[in-house]
């Protein structure tokens, strides 16, 4: 009895054909644009010590408590497949002794992330992110510039229409202490109506309740105070500077006081690029300032800011994935012409042209293969043409054919 065909694990998928071309286009565009802003690409391991993410995401977060792929390896160490990229970048800065040299450092990353959550449109258990970080910069201009880079990527991808930058401030430590006290008072008054998860958060970190997805919690959150009345003059000035720089850089903004980050090392700017074109999964890029995260990794205080974006969600917004490049088909009429055909094939490829050759078959079958590949042209090498140093160039779109010098074939097709 034949074995049943194996299927991908639930919540994962294969990237093939148009899906991969869209994915590749998003990552390649981000890589190209962020290079213009001075970001260098880093690649960190797909798995890290569990402590890296417990410290960066917080023990009370849904990701740490419910969604991480964590396991004990053969040496007894707790290992986690990375659920996001910023923590690994900050850990790498510390591990490689880069916290004192050449700051700020601008970093770009791209790769797979892993979260055990319910698969749905645009959300997978293995998904992909691109991210940009500016490590070691305390100035509001750093916030504005990294946000502007994200907006530039969305524009370059042709998906910025209908996407809105929503932005908020988390203030400085003094602002957050006052705000946290106000939240504690508000949520304590509604404690009995909170979800079990939020009752735990109330004792540990009431700001985390603002991130709750529970419908009952959301109703209580809607009447909670915002941080604006609790901002110090310095925190308000920082936020005003970010908004002013974004305006100068041509990035439209909409203030949203409900955007928060619950952990103490987050401060000042928090933002999300959102759209209504993806249903419930409306956030396509999000980030903020995390001045204390490098210190959580064992390094010195290193003010930093950055964002991450889901490649799958960005790909879904593309009007269409880029078309596959159309090849040139090289067709020897007989076995005697194959050696010359192979030489021509490699000349085309060295000139940067996609070129294909059918491995077997007569002229008719090789032409059928060329049509299946959607070749734009065919170079036909017959005995008489080869003896005369010529080749038949057939334009497969126009249906025209001409005899040209073999030495001119590459230049004709590269024009």
UniProtKB/TrEMBL annotation:
Transmembrane segments: none annotated. Gene3D superfamilies: Anticodon-binding domain, Bira Bifunctional Protein, Domain 2. Residues 10-332 form the Aminoacyl-transfer RNA synthetases class-II family profile domain. Its EC number is 6.1.1.21. It is found in: Cytoplasm. It catalyses: tRNA(His) + L-histidine + ATP = L-histidyl-tRNA(His) + AMP + diphosphate + H(+). Keywords: Aminoacyl-tRNA synthetase, ATP-binding, Cytoplasm, Ligase, Nucleotide-binding, Protein biosynthesis. Belongs to the class-II aminoacyl-tRNA synthetase family. Homodimer. This is Histidine--tRNA ligase. The gene is hisS.
């Amino acid at each position: 009895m034949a074995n049943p065909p194996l299927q991908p694990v639930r919540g994962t998928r294969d990237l093939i054909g148009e899906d991969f071309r869209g994915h590749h286009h998003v990552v390649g565009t981000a890589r190209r644009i962020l290079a213009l802003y001075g970001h260098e690409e880093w690649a960190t391991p797909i798995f890290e010590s569990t402590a890296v993410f417990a410290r960066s995401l917080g023990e009370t977060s849904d990701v740490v408590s419910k969604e991480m792929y964590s396991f004990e390896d053969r040496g007894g160490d707790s290992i986690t497949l990375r659920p996001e990229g910023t923590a690994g970048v900050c850990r790498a800065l510390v591990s490689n002794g880069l916290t004192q040299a050449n700051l700020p450092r601008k970093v770009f990353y791209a790769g797979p992330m892993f979260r055990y959550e319910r698969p749905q449109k645009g959300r997978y258990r293995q998904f992909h992110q691109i991210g940009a970080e500016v490590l070691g910069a305390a100035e509001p201009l750093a916030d504005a510039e990294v946000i502007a880079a994200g907006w530039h990527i969305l524009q370059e991808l042709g998906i910025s229409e209908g996407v809105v930058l929503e932005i908020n401030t988390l203030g400085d430590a003094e602002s957050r202490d006052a705000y946290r006290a106000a939240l504690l008072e508000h949520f304590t008054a509604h404690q009995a109506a909170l979800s079990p998860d939020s009752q735990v958060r109330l004792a540990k970190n009431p700001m985390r309740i603002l991130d709750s997805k529970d419908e009952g919690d959301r109703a209580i959150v809607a009447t909670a105070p915002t941080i604006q009345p609790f901002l110090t003059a310095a925190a308000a000035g920082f936020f005003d500077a970010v908004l002013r720089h974004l305006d100068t850089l041509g990035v439209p903004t909409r203030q949203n006081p409900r955007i928060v980050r619950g952990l103490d090392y987050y401060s000042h700017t928090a933002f999300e690029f959102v759209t209504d074109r993806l249903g419930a999964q409306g956030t396509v890029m999000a980030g903020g300032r995390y001045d204390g995260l490098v210190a959580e990794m064992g390094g010195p205080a290193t003010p930093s800011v950055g964002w991450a974006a889901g490649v799958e969600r960005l790909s879904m917004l593309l009007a269409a994935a880029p078309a596959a490049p159309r090849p040139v088909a090289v067709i020897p009429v007989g076995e005697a012409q194959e050696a010359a055909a192979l030489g021509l094939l490699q000349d085309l490829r060295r000139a940067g042209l996609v070129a294909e050759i059918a491995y077997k078959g007569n002229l008719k079958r090789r032409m059928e293969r060329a049509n299946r590949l959607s070749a734009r042209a065919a170079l036909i090498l017959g005995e008489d043409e080869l003896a005369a140093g010529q080749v038949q160039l057939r334009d497969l779109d126009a249906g025209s054919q001409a005899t040209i010098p073999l030495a001119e074939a590459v230049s004709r097709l590269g024009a």
